[in-house]
Design a protein that fits this description.
The first copy, chain A, is α/β, with parallel strands linked by helices. Chain A has three domains: about 110 residues, 3-Layer(aba) Sandwich (Rossmann fold); about 190 residues, Rossmann fold (3-Layer(aba) Sandwich); about 140 residues, 2-Layer Sandwich (GMP Synthetase, Chain A, domain 3). Chain A is about 35% helix and about 25% strand. In chain A, the strands form six sheets. Chain A has a seven-stranded mixed sheet with strand order 8-7-9-10-11-12-13, sandwiched between helices. In chain A, strands 14, 15, 16, 18, 19 and 20 form a six-stranded antiparallel sheet that branches. A four-stranded mixed sheet of chain A has the order 1-5-6-17. Chains A and B meet through α5 of A and α5 of B.
Amino acid sequence: MYEMHFAVPMAGAVLNGINTRLDPKTIAIVLRHSETKALFVDYKYMPLAREALRLLMDEVKGSMAAKSSIPLVVVIDDVDSPTGVRLGDYSLEYEQLIYKGDRKFVPDEIEDEWDPIALNYTSGTTSAPKGVVYSHRGAYLSTLSLILGWEMGSEPVYLWTLPMFHCNGWTFTWGVAARGGTNVCIRNTTAHEIYSNIALHKVTHMCCAPIIFNILLEAKPQERREITTPVEILTGGAPPPPMLLEKIEQLGFHVVHAYGLTEATGPALVCEWQAKWNQLSRPEQAKLKARQGVSILTLGDVDIKDLATMESVPHDGKTMGEIVLRGSSIMKGYLKDENATSKAFHKGWFVTGDMGVIHPDGYIEIKDRSKDVIISGGENISSVELESVLYKHPSVLEAAVVAMPHPRWGESPCAFITLKEDSPDHHAVVVTEANIIAHCRKNLAGFMVPKKVVFMDGLPKTSTGKIQKFQLRALAKTLEFTVRETSNQSNREEQDQFRDQHHEQIMASSRL
Amino acid sequence: MYEMHFAVPMAGAVLNGINTRLDPKTIAIVLRHSETKALFVDYKYMPLAREALRLLMDEVKGSMAAKSSIPLVVVIDDVDSPTGVRLGDYSLEYEQLIYKGDRKFVPDEIEDEWDPIALNYTSGTTSAPKGVVYSHRGAYLSTLSLILGWEMGSEPVYLWTLPMFHCNGWTFTWGVAARGGTNVCIRNTTAHEIYSNIALHKVTHMCCAPIIFNILLEAKPQERREITTPVEILTGGAPPPPMLLEKIEQLGFHVVHAYGLTEATGPALVCEWQAKWNQLSRPEQAKLKARQGVSILTLGDVDIKDLATMESVPHDGKTMGEIVLRGSSIMKGYLKDENATSKAFHKGWFVTGDMGVIHPDGYIEIKDRSKDVIISGGENISSVELESVLYKHPSVLEAAVVAMPHPRWGESPCAFITLKEDSPDHHAVVVTEANIIAHCRKNLAGFMVPKKVVFMDGLPKTSTGKIQKFQLRALAKTLEFTVRETSNQSNREEQDQFRDQHHEQIMASSRL
């Protein structure tokens, strides 16, 4: 995958890193929609590719374009695990292909820097995956931005815990090369593999979603290795709760927090650290660090606006508005989807769908996904703020808050929680809904306290590790009545049913 | 000047940082050629500006455009030295102007990134100054490149020893802002001011020509301050001799060597350091560091070519060719000079006029200015290589080698040397031409040994500190005969005469 990041553009083609956690049906849709000409498959994903190709063939069967719709397949055998398995009559092995290469090949020269370099399908939490198109110019500027924003120096040793199919590894596929660095690739993002590779290769940098923090923190003693020199972590996705940030830094990791999305070629804001903040207390530092920060250097503009008036919000840290972006590293658009593309932009700005505030120092803090804001009795409740309070509870491993319909207030917050397996501090204490609500009452205004707390064995997540709030919202919708009209028992049953469904999904995808 | 780097582009205008060491006549030419609309003058340069404006007025007198050719003048009084002196009826004081400013002013938005942002007149060692035009795009990419190439981290404390009128401070005017840094400006680049400001402000970065190394090394004990944390120096201009590099690093400076020219918006190559080189001996390190290096990240391409065939030279560290550049940060062209512009480019490449080699590791090393190569009996002699040997002599402060006509070999090398005032190691030794020639014979092939050595009290330099080889070449031309046909005495006289002329020039400009 790393080599493809250079070979494909040099061949004048467009790279489409496919999320390996997708189901075969979605992959078949992606292959067809993107008109894939060549498919490179790691031996580990052969069953997944075989099934996706079968579905693709079924779909195009009988159509005129049947044959041309089936891509050339190149199988990548690993050094330690050659399979010898090939897909179809014309499939090649990767090293074979390279062996056949023309050493005198002259790389394609880009005539227009706005030409596409990569396609990245969104994970499609709510709808069919959309193909986000990156230009050479956008990817290039984003790459420079992130080296700059993260202050990644020369010759980094970069550990790939972030998948390369995720916004081209937030462009660090190209960035590590630009810095003359070393790429450390691992097959499984387990605590053991992460810790032992950090120790073995003297890793200096890694990007990850906050889920990796949990993996690192929950590691068993025998899986851990001492971190002797600080490992720089760039994290994105959900704002990491201050408590989590603090704990991970105590292990020897140094966290920089970024915010972005596929449509912005990865991170668009970085929480640039200021030296004077080093004098603050650790919790104060963690609070500052949990903010999304300032625009990366090469992005044209970031602002928070009232979409109705397109007025910028005041820099007061209070007034919420929609985060909007513009600049070269914003996607060209969604492939073959003019409708979705034009919806994504408003008066020249890309609308992120995230709600935030601007602090007096110009730093942006996300308050919520616009669709995740809970509007209770006319008051906006930030689910992120509420979740950050929940994470402060010593027994809480994961927390997500969504809106639950409420006959009087319209909506009210409902919290979904996974408890730690053995909370060292609260060994004998059984944590109840009442405990959690009491904890919230101590730390939040009354109207923000969840009206309902649901315990789960694990929250539903996308293949990229994001909590799927739309699933929780679906469940929460059924809860209003159960809270009021049914016993705890039936409530429990619904939860079990949900959990089973969710489990089945996980099993379905891990089988492939 | 720093504020102008932001205010002028935000006003939609073009910035022209004028070299304050130029004579009034040249400044008048620059003002007229650039059609300057507003002239900002530091109080220190009032006499210079007054004289330049007088010459400009004389020149345009009687022409239709007379009045519009005279710019608005804004005088900048320093806090400690307000003069109250104004130029002309309409001149303003800078703070007055700011006071009159409109707080609601909306900065100009660039419609085309190729629009000019700055004009930088070359110092014109050989001809009338040429106005090099930078685009917004070029300046922007160059700024990012140099932050990246130098690995300048967040919140640098930057000491301005490099004048801002020199390629806009190699774009660090903008770069320091992009990094949220602090600018330390000094009026005089004396050892005392440099050392004391480094100590006072905890300077982390500075750019300078190698001439500053001499200032730092020759400082008297009472002028020095201990360098407690390393100061990063980015240096350009002449390749610094390894000995000099070594000495300056022993003082606590860490040197990165870059190569560039006005037409490339400053540095275009940076000698990127490789961690494995840290294991080499200091002299080996200094040798590697004296190379010009690899292309900055945002430059399209750097190559060394045979201009006749446009073939690239092999990466053998031996085959010399012309260094050529292309990419967005190359100038748009020379203002109102299509002829010079088209001469500067060859088949899409900007021709630097510098000769170099490419080493097997891809690093470029300059061997000479193409016009400085000495061709002796058909052999190319690199004046830079010869100078680097001369600098190894313990008594040599400055050295420059040029071609001297030779009846048999066509050309032969002639060395111009300034000796140190008191060489600690060689207190009682009088250094003679024979000493220098013997030193060269020990270290160089016979044909490369200078046929003539001329001692001077100081080598002639441009206002930006570059040694003016064209002056030395003019002198060397007269030497062939004196060597062969006249006594040492008359040779000495010619040198004295030259020195006097040169001194007068220096005095003429320092009087202003």
